[in-house]
Amino acid sequence: MITVLRFLWLIPLAPFAGAAIAGFSGRWIGRRGVGIIACGSVALSFVLSVVGVAALSGDLASLDALPGLAINLEARRVTLEVAEWISVGGPDGLVVSWSLMLDPLSAVLILVITGVGFLIHLYSVGYMAEEDRGYARYFAFLNLFTGMMLLLVLGASLPVLFVGWEGVGLCSYLLIGFYYTETWCADAGRKAFIVNRIGDAGFLLGALTLWLASGSLDLEPILDGVAASGPLREVALAGSLLLFTGAVGKSAQIPLSVWLPDAMAGPTPVSALIHAATMVTAGVYLVVRMGAVFVAAPLALAVVAGIGAATALYAATIACAQTDIKKVLAYSTISQLGYMFLGVGVGAFAAAIFHLITHAFFKAVLFLGAGSVIHALHGEQDMGRMGGLRDRMLITWVCMLAGGLALAGIVPFAGFWSKDAILWGALSGGHTFLWILGLAGAGLTAFYVFRLLFMIFHGKPRDEDLVRNAHESPYIMSGPLLVLGVLSLIGGIVGLPAIIYGGDWLGRWLDPVLAHAPAAAHEGVHSAGAEIGAMVLSLVIAGAGFMVALMAYVLRHVWAERLPRKLEPLSGWARAKYYVDEFYQRAILGPYLQLCHIFRQFDERAVDGLVNAVWRTADGVGHFARYLQTGFVRNYALFLLIGAALILYLVLP
Amino acid sequence: MSLVWMLTLSTALFTVGVLGVLLRRNAIVILMAVEIMLNAANLALIAFSRHLGSADGQILAFFVMTVAAAEAAVGLAIVLAIFRLRKSVNVDSLNRMKW
Question: Model pTM?
């Protein structure tokens, strides 16, 4: 059983192979073949992950040490060197190998990636059924993404992690621009890619900083070395902040959050898999993975917590004012990622990972449900034209309700436990202000999610023609929805806190990885009564959000309907997304384009002018010299003779 | 026979060759004139070789003959090709190779 860990490399390889088969031979194996290959490879990867994680939880001591297979019993970490990659500078030089690492943290993530990924692959078979030419391309990219994501979380060194990091970014770009014949889709893909590039530059610089200080790019020596005082500890602040820049880009936090709403241009299952469940959480994973470095620099942790809390609240307010289903969910995702960073920043690493998992479940079901609705309405995404879909799409409604209740943080749905774990982490860590921000965000979350559900499913249809022919999606789509819906309900079971006699399995499972997590601060609140009280308080606030949404969109209470007007200009700003895009356009893109214009002028006038002068000279000389070329061979012979005579005259003394 | 006489003959032959190339219109005759020039050079080489008592000039003369044979083969082939195309070997009518 335990020997399966030697075949760790098969986990990412399976989706890569699927991508190659679907991408290169999609034309010959047909649509059915592509679907089977794509889903099958991810399913295989899932089975391998389950077996691998089971092996990891077993008795590691019985595993014989093999060349290339290292085991760290204390951290429950298995490192497998698959192949050599870079080796320069002799024995003391830089050595980077393709090595994979399975520890409790990556174990949790590969289960989520392959599990949720498999469900979304299945759903895509139904969702993309009407897609004609891009069918194989779609699944090849989706498989490639899954493989890259697995490489990201399994990578045992920063360069391998970075390959996965860039790989998922590439797949994200390719899938956002999937409908590349539409200019706005292609633009959205480019925007995502470029904004991510800014963060990735930070990631690279951070990795190099850590390398300079530690002499190694492998995670193990960096994480173990930063605990002791030394050069690594001195660069911990710079290194962690630079790495966090990468996380900010990938996870769409302030100020690099602008790409995620635009990324909704891609097919909806892509939004569910890449832009909600997995890729965007890679930033959270990175910070947790490099947690030891962040813990060594308390200021960096404070920055993470501050940006997380600010983003959670900021994105939640925007989500309240959008009318496009997918935009609401996109801002919601940004907001929830903010919560995860808040959790990481206050030192509640396990809570952040807990929220990452439950968020993968409930946000995937919300996106897939939204996709089901959009599918039924032939591409309509404006909630303002929907309504009354509950009876026509019962399964979708039930599943989205489960996802929505989880997102809103209603007991006993999964999101309640994880969000509360984060908020409790903030409160017990003594970060009262951040806790209040988080609570306010929770209220807004409940409001916008019920607003979404009410506008889609309840009341009378606002556009009869649109809604009349809507019908439930086929089983291949509703099946994954149901599974994810159930997971949204019961997913919290893995991390039930001890206070309500839960096992907190996740926390204990992650303990070996998070040994460096800071102990709870002394100034915080610790009593059991406070923990229960905080839970009740967040439930009350979520209930208040629900009530406002109910009054405004179902009961049509006058007070609630007038609420947006009363909140001017705040509500207007939220509708306009706080003009962030416009601000970037003016403050950064405008001057940048002017600079480009100047350089273009320089290129066209100075550089091209020089080149043109050269050819004009040659052309002018040739204009006269060409008369020497008569075409008469005897003339040439005469020139030859004259030339030879001239040389003789010059050479002879 | 002194060196001077031999060089005089060589110069005379060379001049004949040059004038032939410059003045004649028939391509074949021009080729023949080129051969005369090459052989005039050969004569000068051999004259010096004899005068200096060195074999270098004679060896060089053999090279010139080899090159001359190759030149004649290529030249005649070109002339033949031109004749097939234009039904003429008059070089004055061949003035199309220009701007």
Answer: 0.81
